[in-house]
UniProtKB/TrEMBL annotation:
One of its GO terms (molecular function) is transcription cis-regulatory region binding. The keyword DNA-binding applies. The keyword Cell membrane does not apply. Residues 33-52 bind DNA. It comes from the Bacteria. Residues 10-70 form the HTH tetR-type domain. Keywords: DNA-binding, Transcription, Transcription regulation. This is TetR/AcrR family transcriptional regulator.
Length: 209
């Protein structure tokens, strides 16, 4: 039997992850079945089970891969100093939205995982680590931003601002995805009532905290 190349394997896994993200983003983790993913991917059941022993293993791997790719988008967007928070916000949104591997389905899957009781400890740990990474990167920018009164903030305040900033960025994608849904659930209703990112940024920086 010929050896499967690393590139071929990576291409198959990418397609499988995309099918997993799409199913989870549409109907959630609990309702997604391995059959849904197999049918969406177009692969045979034998091929899928050759890589993953169960739905749980596949979902876990897909979540961790989505987080890894999202972290890459955040890293590229925060490499250069940004003069203002709105500039960094637009840079982050563009970096995430224009990467096909970190688009709506991946973001929808991450949000579904975030509110699911079935998410694995490994996936939750990866999400927490990504959040800390993003907040650390944003905090370095926030240290250089002047407030309306012309002063700079200390590291603790910059980190608090960064946590809120990351929440707004990720919440923006959740709001974009769920705002057109006609269903009513606590999550969807909360997202519908969320403030826009620009209003949140204006309030944050007008307080001079």
């Amino acid at each position: 039997m010929p050896r499967v190349s690393d590139a071929y394997r990576a291409k198959r896994l990418d397609a499988l992850y995309r099918a997993t993200w799409g199913s989870i983003a549409r109907i959630g983790i609990e309702r997604t079945t391995i059959t849904d993913i197999i049918e969406s991917s177009g692969f045979s059941a034998g091929m899928v089970y050759n890589y993953f022993a169960s739905k749980e293993d596949l979902v876990d791997a897909a979540h961790i891969e989505a987080i890894r790719r999202l972290r890459g988008a955040i890293e590229s967007a925060t490499e250069k100093p940004s003069p203002r928070p709105d500039v960094l916000f637009e840079r982050l949104i563009r970096a995430i939205a224009t990467r096909p591997e970190a688009g709506d389905n991946a973001m929808g899957a991450l949000w579904s995982m975030n509110v699911s009781e079935t998410a694995s400890p490994a996936a939750r740990a990866a999400l927490d680590e990504m959040w800390r990474f993003a907040a650390d990167r944003v905090a370095e920018h926030a240290l250089r931003w002047e407030r309306p009164d012309g002063r700079l903030v200390g590291r603790a305040a910059a980190r608090a601002d960064a946590d809120l900033f990351v929440s707004v960025v990720l919440g923006y994608f959740a709001q974009q995805r769920f705002r057109t849904l006609t269903s009513s659930t606590p999550l969807v209703d909360a997202l519908r009532s969320a403030v826009t990112h620009r209003a949140a940024l204006r309030r944050l920086w007008s307080t001079g905290r």
